[in-house]
């Protein structure tokens, strides 16, 4: 970039700050003002120059990498990518393509779309062969035969969501101790969409939001793109550090706290009852709202405390979905909130895409009404319990320990060295991993990595991990 003070980015514009910053660099690269091989400012320096957060810069650089204009070189920084002549995909032998280890949230997800689940210990979902396609096909057949359809296939559907699904969800929430009428439930295109609606409806650029650290990398990226300031709250086996949370809230006056109380991603931890009570007291005293993401709730025992149950949906908005237990292809999620919040959230949904799919929502309702979804979830919990035992034994055999006893789908493994340094060697050996830095709001390096209990049961992975750690400890630097 030329010397001098850069033109300020436009806060409050329709394009997020990260997009503005990415386009600014992209234009200079296309105009050859930044030549191939040129090094861009460090994340911290770029944030200082443009008056934005480091998270905004990371999101902008990620967009440039996705566009093929930028490349990240480990421990060196970000560089303008060498331009290459276009080559047809058919002309490139598949065996010569080099995969890059994930260095950010987008790359992690992209890698997971391409990965073989059997060789993806860092996968964020259950593998396809753990799911129940017959359950889905049966529900769709009933709709296709005209039963229970009520003209769903030729109409937009209710903007609030399919009435039968919302009724079934009301009963599901009651089992968790959350009392929400169907009128307090809004269906969405997956839990991620529900969280996005909440961000766009209830937050403004410049607002501060408390987040778990480690936490869900995609949520960090979405909040950053919305111009929201992240306030990381350390998360351990005992739950969020409430002393740190209280200090941050007193200093920065956050609008909300986005958290996972049950089967936290990536650690697998669940909040205990005492911690939940104290957190809700702090929310009252310091006047912030809580968004409770329960995306993995079907994989957890129903008795685990939900913040929304203790709070009565007063300060807490509850979010969940079905992608983790049915299929990622069915983007059906929902949120439950106080009645006064629903109108604005429904308006945002209408402007976003009119309605969600009434056909898929009715199909999910049939799965719930028949009790088949409940039985399927119980089988998954039992199979995961067996998988955790096997994975724990494999990890112990290779000398690894856990930050806390694994639970649910994930475990938070301590490998003893910087886990990000292991990602590329393991990927070269055919194993997709999820190093801990991907789940850090500040991209802090560390020795932890997320392990998927369903996809980490091959002893060959644990031998490869042990070998990679041993090579790392022998290598200088």
TrEMBL record:
A Pfam family recorded for this sequence: Aminotran_1_2
Location of the HTH gntR-type domain: 15-83
GO MF term (any one): transaminase activity
Keyword DNA-binding applies: yes
Keyword Transcription: yes
Keyword set, alphabetical order: Aminotransferase, DNA-binding, Pyridoxal phosphate, Transcription, Transcription regulation, Transferase
Gene3D superfamilies: Type I PLP-dependent aspartate aminotransferase-like (Major domain), Winged helix-like DNA-binding domain superfamily/Winged helix DNA-binding domain
Family: In the C-terminal section; belongs to the class-I pyridoxal-phosphate-dependent aminotransferase family.
Protein name: PLP-dependent aminotransferase family protein
Source organism of the structure: Pelomonas dachongensis
